[in-house]
Specification:
Layout: H1 6-20, H2 25-100, H3 117-136, H4 140-146, H5 155-162
């Protein structure tokens, strides 16, 4: 970054006054300010476009993950149906064999694998990062200008604020 102090700006201004002249200096300064403003707006547009593209890519990834999860769920549901039918028929066989006096050997049910601490931490980190990206992409001044709520009012306070004809110290009588 260019380090411009007060003395360097004064020297640049003096040289510009001598080279350009006092008649054209305000016009040139106005034009330089306009160009600087255009450059800032262009950079802001590029940054917002990049952030939109990043959000779109995240949404695409989430969509792909959701589709994969839906396919996995569908296959597990189909498998579950056959498992339920098989389980019901095996239990019916066990009940019938117990009724007759036979005792078949049963195998234990498989245990579900719990999430590890590292998996939970990774998911929490990803959630916090994505939330920071979502919330920091819109500046506070823009939220204020658009009328985003900053303070929550209770129902009674809203009624009092927006009731027509009511003044703060006035009495009904």
């Amino acid at each position: 970054m260019i380090d411009l102090g007060l003395t360097k700006l004064a020297v640049i201004g003096a040289v510009a006054l001598v080279v350009i002249g006092p008649e054209k200096l305000p016009k040139v300064a106005r034009m330089a300010g306009t160009l600087y403003g255009r450059a800032q707006r262009y950079l802001h547009e590029v940054k917002s476009e990049v952030s939109r593209e990043i959000e779109l890519e995240e949404l695409r990834n989430i969509h792909k993950e959701a589709q994969a999860a839906a396919q996995g769920f569908k296959s597990s549901v189909d498998g579950f149906k056959t498992d339920v039918e098989g389980t019901v028929s095996s239990h019916m066989d066990e009940v019938e064999s117990a009724w007759r006096g036979d005792t078949p050997a049963t195998e234990p049910a498989p245990a579900l694998e719990p999430l590890t601490h590292d998996d939970i931490e990774r998911k929490a980190r990803e959630f916090r990062r994505k939330k920071l990206v979502r919330t920091s992409s819109v500046p506070a001044w823009y939220k204020n200008r658009q009328g985003a709520r900053q303070h929550v009012l209770s129902g009674a306070a809203r009624v009092r604020k927006f009731r027509p004809g009511v003044k703060s110290g006035a009495s009904f009588f």
